[in-house]
User: Fold this.
Amino acid sequence: MQIDCRHVQFSIHEGFTVGTGSRQINLQELQNLFQITAFWARDRKLEDWVIALQNSRPIVTAWDDDRLIGFARATSDGIYRATIWDVVVHPDYQGLGLGRKLVETLLMHPHVNRAERVYLMTTNQQKFYERIGFEENQTTTMVLFNQPVSQEGLTLVQEEVLHRG
Assistant:
């Protein structure tokens, strides 16, 4: 049975704020979507999602009535580089073009569409992204598996540097 997606709506978020509204991102609902669809993001914490979303622009969501069924986000300097992150579509809605629409909406956003290069990382969906126009890139394959650093005292250090001039 084919799902009718004509009523699915997409929303563009220019950042993230905690609150309510018909298309406001509910963190628990977002986390549930990722636990169902993304093996690579199942252990993310709600407080970490807040930080990631606050530093993302744009964020695009897909909704079936009030149900979050798709999500994608980007980060960009607005001119040279952009990166697409965390593209997911609920399994009940996969294969219907919603993932493509999420990515294309990100790519058309003014904060992304002027970037010289748009990057993304994917584990198993290379063919999907190639159909959208992405190419495999062998020249930028380096990664640093960074160890999280405690943020305690970081503000104080930054303030000391500023005051020393």
